[in-house]
Structure formats: structure tokens, C-alpha cells
Specification:
Length: about 725
Amino acid sequence: MNTIIFAVIFPLIAGFFLWLLFRNKRLEGDRSALSIAMIAVSVIELAAVVNLFVCDLTGVGFDRVWLGWGVGGLGLSFRYTGFRGIFGMQAAFAWFVTFLFAKQFMKNDTRVIRYDFFNLMTLGATMGIFYAADFFTLFFFFEMMSFTSFMWVAHRQTYASQYASGTYLGIAVAGGMAILMGMFIIYVSFGTLDFAALGELRAAESLPVFAAAVCMFLGFGAKAGAFPVHVWLPASYTEAPAPATALLSAILSKTGVFGLLLVTVELLPYSNNWGKLVLVLGVITMALGGIRGVMSNNFKTTIAYSSMSQIGFILVGVGMQALTAEAMALGSAKGMSSEAHFAAEAYQVYHMAVNGTLLHMINHSLVKLALFMIAGIVFLNVGSYELNKVRGFGHGKPFLLVTFLAAALGVGGIPLLNGYVSKTLLHESIAGYAEVLNGLSGAGVSVGLSPAFIRGTEYLFLFSGGLTLAYMAKLFVVLFVERNEDSLLQYEYEEKNKYASVLSKAAVALCVFPIPLIGMLPNIVADGVAKYGFMGAAIEGALAVEQERMQYFSVRNLSGALISIAAAVAVYLFIVRVLMLRKKGEGYREIFPSWLDMEKYVYRDVFYRFFAFLLGIIARILDSIVDIAVVFLRKTVYRDKALPYALPEGNRVTHLLGRSMECARRFYCVVTKKEYKAKNYEHKLALKSMDLFENLRIIERSLSFGLFMFCVGLGLTMIYLLLVN
């Protein structure tokens, strides 16, 4: 069996097999055996994707492979590239460490077999996404992943989890429909959904193609947690079990970004409008997630909003890719003076945007795996994520201190840690693009963006980096610096030496280990990874430019980190220490205005109230139209005809029958010698006749009767067709 196919279908087969084996087993020993089996499955899966990586490094080529030619009429196709290989390994590694952690976290959960079944289904679907060779395969597994991961959010079966899972599923279904609409437009426009074929066509931006890209942004952006389709993220991350939340943040959000990268590279690689759209929404996502993270009084929710903010950083990189690629194309097309110098400068900026995006996706995955598993350890011991309850838990726990600090500083972009490398690349791509714009303006080329706008984006980027450090400082102080107001509870926390199992600590350590490694050796580790997974081959002619060695620790780059640190100090002191802790003795409180909750007061109001109200009005109008149509037809087509003259009473039948009955009665009275009194049978029969036939005519003239008979005929026709066929 082809290794790519094996990596996709092995988790699916293993999931069904383990479900059949453990579905009726609820004992603690059975759950332990199931956990070991899940770890074994993840090891095999990790070995398979590492084998793909090794084969690719040794020069073994991978042809495009097919699975299920008849699915959807197009079949499911897969291929291996460096970019796909990196995220395949990242996904397999994430599932491996979360299975290690789940052995402790889920050991008392009686529904763990259901969780593990859908976990493996999601793993297989995720691999199908990362190795997809066309949009149809990507969509097929993307939808499968959405429905299987829905069970993570609903797993606890509480009111809060059901509420969150309903939002998650609603956004997932709506996003899937948007992606499907975008696929329809692409297929009509190009006649193919294959990534390689679309990359070769690279038609100029048109309204249909841009509309398809916007539809796909709604679908893929929803899974990534991008504004404005991010509303499912905080509640879903909070309600799902900690191992599942780690996967939602570290991997599933990256499937959305993966889709957006493919749209950017294969459909709109030179689009200024697409780049501006993604950049603006990325900046909003980045800043809004940071603000909500600072203002939250829940440990896990803070990390959830941190994920949203870091996705914003990644989207900024995606937007910069499209903008810098267009700048290179325009500079070459206009035949600018010193074209070689401009091409080299523009390419360096593009290269930083691409590498920064890829590296920040990897760095964010590592950091969030560690942070959410640490949050799970806290929950197992405290039973809550509220800051006032977890306060002081980290005292006397050096392992928790070191790992949390490394992850928090890493995502905050502190020098010598991984986040600093990727954020430096992204920051320099923004600053470098401002210089590229100056060069274009000097040559009389306009791209519709001013250097001032890009400078504003740069300032928001640095400020958002400060927000990241501020909310991570809040969590660090809560866990390891402050003490709980309940002294007995604080004593209990400090006495907990066995707060995490060996496997849980190993899982966290495996995620934290690469954080300083990437940060201290950026030109070796980070640049090497970025070069292997480089997507810049989509830009024709650019690869001939020699890449300059990035000076990560230059004064200019370090100054950006210092600005973010200064912003973090100001935000932490004012928002956290002044606003959140305004009243002594009450602890931390949520200060984000509840009326700004987009999920509750925008999406749910729109879909559950406004749409219901609007559809109710439409239904009333349609009902009135039917009544008006009936009255109109009754007064026109089906109106009663005017009688030209008065008809005689009854008809010939009633006249003859009535006279006959009258004669018979007279004869009877003569024979029986009784007094004859006329009964007027002719008049009575005439009245009965008129009453009967008039009712029949009214029914025949009724439009409702005609519609009823039409439905009866249609139903009989359908029954006939079913019986015949």
C-alpha cells in the first residue's frame, strides 16, 4: 500500500477496529488498555509520515496517488510536497503527545471509547487534508474533520458544551457550504480543481475567481478562527477536553490556514485585493484576540483567545505573501530602472513573509500543545479554569514553572525562543514591504496601498505582540507568583507533589524542547525547516535571486521585540492590575463588555431571531398572496355567470318524479277512502335538487378543490412510477 494512502486510512481503520473491541468495556483496566492502544496507533502513524519525510530527503519521488475514483465523480487524490510533509509530521506528533497526555486526563471518563473513536477519525481526515492534491479531496476530508471533531466539543454533554458544540457545528456547516460554492465557481471558471493545474493556469484576477476566494475564506477562515467567523472558538476551546483543545488549536486551526494558503498560492498569487483583504482581517483577528485574552478571567479561555490572536499573526503573513508577490510582478512588468536590485529586495521581503508564515504555524502548534496540556494538568488538580481558583497552584512545581515559562515567552516573541524567529520574519516582511512600496511609487507604479497604511499595520503588529506578553504575564503571575486567598487551599496546592503523571510530563516536555532549539539556532533549524517546506515556487522567476542570510539578532530586529515588551508592561499594569483587580478581595474579574459578544448578540440574534422574524413575515405575505389569488380567481375566472332569465323550479326529472308521487298519493287516498291533502312533492324535490347540485358546483368552482385534485393526481403518479421502476 502507498505510504500516503496508509497515513490517511490507517487511523480510520484503527478507529473502527478499536471501537468494535472496546465499545462495551467500561472498567478502568479496559480504559488503560485502550489508552495504550491509542498511543501505539499514533506511534505507527508518526513512523509512516516520518518515513515519507526521509524518503523525500533521500530523493525518492512520490507520484500522485488516487483513492476512490468514483467519489463525487472526481475521486480522491493525494500528493506529497515539503510543505505537506511538514504539517503531516506536525499533526502526527500532536496526536502522539496528546494521546500520551490523555492517558491521565481521560482515565476516569467512561465515554473515552467514543472520544478515542472520533479522535482517530479526525486524525485520518486531517491527514487527508494535508496530503490533498485538489480542492475536492480537501473539501471531502475538511467536512469529515468538522463533523468528527464536533464530538470533541460535545463530549462532556453539559448545557455549556451543547451550547458551544451547536455554535461549532453551525459555523462548520455554513463554512462548508461557502467552500462548496467557491469550488463550483472555480470548476466553472477553470474546468479543474487540481492544485497543480490551477497553479499552471494562473489566470488574471477576475470577479468570479475573487468571489470564489472570498467564499473559501469564510469556510477555511472559520476553522482557523479568523475574524469575523471566530465566534465558535472561545467556548469550544473551553468546553472540549484539554487533549482535544490542544489539537483544535495546534492542528485543526492550521487546516483552515492551509486552505487559505492554497487559495493564495494557487488561485490568487499576485492579487493585491486578496492580499489587502487577508491582511486587514488578519490584523483585526490579531488585535481582537489579544485584547480578549488580556481581559479574560479564565485560564483556558485566555489561551483560546491567544490562539485566535496568533492565527491573526499568521494571516498577516498570508496577506503579505500576496502583496509582495504582486509588487514583484508589477516591478518586472514596468521595466523599472535598477530592476535587478528591486527584484532582489522584493524577493527577500516575499521570502520573509512565506518563511515567517510557515514557521509561526509550526511554532504556534508547539506552544499551544504545551499550554493546553498544562491547562489540563491544572484542571485535573483544581477542577476549574477560573483564575481566582487556580491562583497559586504553581508554587513548588519547578517542572510546571519551566515548561509554562518557555511556552509563554516563546509565543510572546522573546529573543532566543521560537516565537521571536517567526515574528521577526513577519515583522520584517511588513517593514520591508513599506520600502518596496516607496520604490514602486518612485517608478510611478500604484498598488492602492500607502506606506503609511503599512506602517500602521506594523505598529499594530508590535502592539499585538505586547498583548501576547501581557496575557501570558497575567497567567504566569496567577499560577506562580500570587498566592490563593484561601490559605488552606494554598497549602493543599503546595503539598501536591504528584500533580501529573510521567507520561503527561513527557508529553509537555516533548513540545517544549524545540522552543529554545529553534530560537537559539534560527539560521540552522528555522531556515532549514522553512527552506524544506518553501511555497515560494509559485512565484515564477523569483527563485533565481540569492537569499540573504537573515540577521535575527541585529539591533533593528531586537528593537521590535523591545517595543512589544514595553507595550506589554503598560497593558499589564493598566488593564490587569488596575481594571481587573480594581476591588481588593474580589480577585480577577471579566472586564470585556458582554454586549460586545458577537456570538450571542450578532450571530445568534441574526440566525435565531432576525431570520425567524423575516421568514415569518415572508410566510405571512405568501399566505396572503394565496388568499388574494383565490379571491381574484373567484371574482374573475371562476365567477358565477349572470342568469339571462329565471329558470323554472327544479328540472324535468324532479317535475316528472314529483307529479308521479303526487298522483300515487291521490290514488292511495281514493282507494283507502281517506281525505286527500296535496303534499307538493314537486316543490320539495326541486329544493333538494337545487341544494345538492349547487353544493357540487361550488366545490367544482373552488380553486382549493382543483389544487387538491392536482396533488392527488401527482401523488398517484409518483406511486405509479415507484411501482413501475
